[in-house]
């Protein structure tokens, strides 16, 4: 298997020692739609769980896309909406060994590098011991779903890294 090494970023022109393979979002997309002065009143948010307006429930999970020719994955930390019952079921079992059945949810993260990802259908696969759930997408022709199913090349991971590059000189 190929080991992922550093790369020269086409965005900033710098050599980076490691190719980023893990990206995340600190809140569901709806958090950013709310006015900053409303967020504290409307959202209960921590690193893994979010409740909006006491009626919309979200959990943070991971879309893990295999990187072809390696043992590694491109990981997107995403938020998924759940029913109230499923949200509290996961919350109750978060730090326990037992596995829960997969549950339906709607992707609630707008991922860069893809066409609209909000409201893609998902299955949330809870994992034991507080490990963030694995998020499976409905098999469709959406590019994110295709990449999850077929994997991505190292070149695609480099392309994403360049697209998301933050130039330290700015």
Structural description of this entry:
The chain is α+β, with helices and mostly antiparallel strands. The protein has one domain. 24% of the residues lie in helices and 29% in strands. The protein contains 5 helices and 10 strands; from the N terminus they run βββααββββαβββαα. The strands form 2 sheets. Strands 3, 4, 5, 6, 7, 8, 9 and 10 form an 8-stranded mixed β-sheet that branches. Strands 1-2 form a two-stranded antiparallel ribbon. A hairpin with a 6-residue loop joins strand 1 and strand 2. The longest helix is centred in the middle third of the chain and has 10 residues, at 84-93.
Descriptive key words:
alpha+beta; DUF2199 domain-containing protein; DUF2199; two-stranded antiparallel sheet; 8-stranded mixed β-sheet; 24% helix; 5 helices; 170 residues
Q: For the residues shown, what is the average pLDDT? A: 90
| CA distance, first residue to last residue | 37 Å
Determine Rg (CA atoms, Å). Answer: 17 Å
Query: Structural class of the helices, strands and pairings?
Result: alpha+beta
How many domains? The number is 1
Total helix count? Answer: 5
Oligomer, anyone?
single chain
What amount of the residues lies in strands?
Answer: 25-35%
Shape: globular
Helix content: 10-25%
């Amino acid at each position: 298997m190929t080991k992922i090494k550093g790369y020269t970023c086409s965005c900033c022109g710098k050599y980076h020692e490691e190719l980023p393979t893990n990206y995340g979002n600190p809140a569901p997309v709806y958090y950013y739609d709310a006015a900053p002065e409303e967020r504290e009143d409307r959202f209960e948010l921590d690193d893994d769980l979010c409740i909006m307006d006491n009626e919309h429930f979200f959990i943070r999970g991971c879309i893990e896309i295999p990187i072809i020719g390696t043992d590694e994955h491109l990981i997107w930390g995403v938020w998924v909406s759940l029913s109230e019952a499923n949200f509290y079921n996961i919350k109750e079992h978060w730090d326990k060994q037992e596995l829960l059945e997969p549950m339906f949810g709607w992707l609630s993260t707008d991922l860069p590098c893809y066409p609209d990802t909000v409201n893609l259908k998902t299955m949330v696969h809870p994992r034991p011991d507080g490990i963030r759930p694995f998020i499976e997408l409905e098999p469709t022709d959406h590019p994110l779903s295709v990449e999850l199913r077929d994997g991505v090349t190292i070149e695609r991971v480099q392309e994403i890294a360049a697209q998301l590059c933050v130039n330290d000189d700015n």
